Amino acid sequence: MTTTTGPVFGVGRPLVARQAGYTIAIVANLALLFVANNLLAWDVAPFLTGEFTTVLWLIDISLLATIAVNLAHIWYDPAWFKSACQIGLGSISMLVAIRMFQVFPFDFSAYEFDWERVTRFVIVLGMIGIGIGIIVETVKLARSFLPTLAVSSTRDWDNNEAVHRNERRTR
Length: 171
Fold this sequence. Notes:
It contains 6 helices and no strands. It has helices at about 15-35, 40, 55-75, 80-105, 115-145, 145-170.
């Protein structure tokens, strides 16, 4: 069996390695799906309230979408497609984080430390990270459709810099 390399943002990992990564991601997300849907029944997180069920359906959608995307990547994973999928998954993750912040299915009243503030802060940090990720993937997607623009603008910048350097020397 031969391996091929494909366009994976700066790294040409062999196809078999990428497929193995997608498969591991699928298994991990299936495990997370199972855990998320049994957390309340197992009673291993006493700080979770019954309100968790109002957010669970969004968590399930996020995990199922991630599984579907990784399944698709096993057979088709060009750079533009990966970026488009990441934008979609990021958008779903943002919805989960926003809803988690709104519902806040946690009760930390049994603890002395102010875990509510920390948890809300972590959720907001997650939203910021997701937002940055969506922006980065949008830029990657745009650059994948306009590769000559990205190269020519860099080349023009370098040429302009050289011209300015030469002008400074002749003064």
